[in-house]
Amino acid sequence: MNSNDFNEKVKRNVAGNFDQSLAFYQAFEAKHHFFAALASTLAEKISLRPNTHVLDVGCGNGISSRTLNERFGCRVLGVDLSSKMVAAGQGELTSENVRLIVGDGERLAEVVGNQTFDYVLYNASIFIFPDVNRALQEAVACLKPEGEIAFSFYPHLAGPTDEDLLIEAFDRVGEPRPRFRVITDYDKACQALARHCGKVSQHRWVRPLDIEFLQDFFSIPAQSASLFPGMDYQARRKKIIHLFSGLSDIADNGTIVWRMARGKKPASV
Ligand SMILES: C[S@@+](CC[C@H](N)C(=O)[O-])C[C@H]1O[C@@H](n2cnc3c(N)ncnc32)[C@H](O)[C@@H]1O
Questions:
Q1: Are 56 and 75 contacting, i.e. CB atoms less than 8 angstroms apart?
Q2: Sequence spans of domains, the chain
Q3: Cystine design at 147: which of 64, 123, 143, 202 (Cβ 3.0–4.6 Å)?
């Protein structure tokens, strides 16, 4: 299989995983209000200018898009691979300044036409893109001069000396360590951002290591697919509960770090 066929297969799987995750995703957000908080924090960390035009790539069921509109007055176009997530999100829209459409964030030109944006944001989505370089190239192409790209990343569970507590959790319960957790890792995403935007600024949102939050977060089917690959959902969920219970005694010494990065399109591109 060539790399293009492989990437397209990954994206079909991602769309299927998120189609199946809708009800879990909604229940998780109703309990934790997390993705809205992450979107707000990303916007605050990058000092997002209010009332601007934002492309929200990997918008899911529109939590990030609605947050950017409601809290920052932005006009938002959300794009997502999962038709079920988008359809559910469309049903919840209350502002004509938010639109959600099905599309591939690695093929933005086909999705956005000749619209241009002040920001292209990825709230908890860029690590799922198999060809991050192409994705960001497409993002730059639909940005206004000096427009900005920013993303928030997959959680990093950090111990007191920044050791990786997710690996520790697998070791403690005697499960094999996952071969990979995300499709594109943080360094690769930052390198791609630097390639297209030059200087990259990085930010962190540090939260307490909350065991119940982690159990709920990774119980969203799409979030745990790579941790226990090939396992059916019910079996995976049991493993997730057990896995994070194993960190209970060190929860007070750990944190969940949400890494973020931003870059600016050069004025002359
Ligand atoms: C964890 S959800 C985040 C959703 C939303 N940004 C939020 O804050 O609630 C990640 C989303 O990225 C979407 N996604 C992954 N790869 C994509 C791609 N190539 N193009 C568009 N959306 C993609 C998934 O379908 C999923 O809905």
A1: no
A2: 3-154+181-206+257-264
A3: 143
Measured by CA distance, the residue closest to atom 23 of ligand 1 is 58
Pick from 67, 58, 182: nearest CA to 120: 58
Domain 3-154+181-206+257-264: CATH superfamily, name plus number = Vaccinia Virus protein VP39 (3.40.50.150)
CA nearest ligand 1 atom 26, residue? 60
Paired tokens of 156: 């990093």
Q: Is 118 in the pocket of ligand 1 (CB under 6 A)?
A: no
**79 CB near ligand 1 (under 6 Å):** yes
Query: What string of pLDDT tens digits covers the 269 residues of the chain?
Result: 788 899 999 999 999 999 999 999 999 999 999 999 999 999 999 999 999 999 999 999 999 999 999 999 999 999 999 999 999 999 999 999 999 999 999 999 999 999 999 999 999 999 999 999 999 999 999 999 999 999 999 999 999 899 999 999 999 999 999 988 899 999 999 999 999 999 999 999 999 999 999 999 999 999 988 899 889 999 999 999 999 999 999 989 999 999 999 999 998 76
For the whole model, what pTM was predicted? 0.97
